[in-house]
Amino acid sequence: MHKSTDVRDYIRTIADFPHEGILFRDVTTLFADPRGFRMAIDQMLHPFIGAAIDKVVGLEARGFILGGAIAHQLSVGFVPVRKKGKLPGPVISEDYQLEYGEAVVEIHDDAIAAGEKVLLVDDLLATGGTAEAGIRLIERLGGEIVGCAFIVDLPDLGGHERLEKLGLDVHAVCAFEGL
Questions:
Q1: Fewer CB within 10 Å of terminal CB in the chain, N or C?
Q2: Active site residue 62
């Protein structure tokens, strides 16, 4: 068990995963440590203390872990944004670009009511493509985004700046330079 007060110290870096030249920031080591996990949740929530939030939306899959914990802390509902074909009820879909190709995420069409205040949550902000797709889904349902919270920002990939250009309040607990 770690004794650090820096969330970065709980995150393992794995070289050459999923491809050569990539430094993968593995938050499962953070999740496994009760002190580190609690610290990350508290720090993700801190910028939004006092904000009116009705729902937390988590992006598949690690965003579910974080979003569930944050929703619990706030005593609000949790809504998953999933990969295409994973939700059982009527959905709306949003396409977005990946490094090589395209992907689709979905949300139940009744998951967010018009005017509800939403906090978007995920583990890592890279290019911002997945987060932006989730944002478009929330907005199509009439949700108002209070902010976006991440554990890790990879600033060299531009996601933070991309989301801020959409007029969003974006916070990350820590950042790692490089890919």
A1: N
A2: yes
**Is the separation of the CB atoms in 153 and 172 below 8 Å?**
yes
Round to whole Å and give the CA distance between 10 and 31. Answer: 9
Cis peptide before 18 (omega within 30 of 0): yes
Catalytic residue among 20, 60, 62, 106: 62
Q: In terms of Cα–Cα distance, which of 12, 85, 19, 74 is closest to 41?
A: 74
**Bridge partner residues of 130 (DSSP):** none
Q: Give catalytic status of residue 99 as yes or no.
A: yes
The span from the CA of 52 to the CA of 57, in Å, is 14
* CATH number among 3.40.50.720, 3.40.50.2020, 3.40.718.10, 2.60.40.1930, domain 50-174: 3.40.50.2020
Q: For the segment 122-155, what is each residue's pLDDT rounded down to a tens digit?
A: 999 999 999 999 999 999 999 999 999 999 999 9
Which entry of 8, 20, 25, 99 is annotated as an active-site residue?
99
Sequence-distant (6+) residues with CB within 8 A of 162 are 127, 128, 132
pTM over 0.90: yes
Phi, psi values for residue 32, rounded to 5°: -75, -20
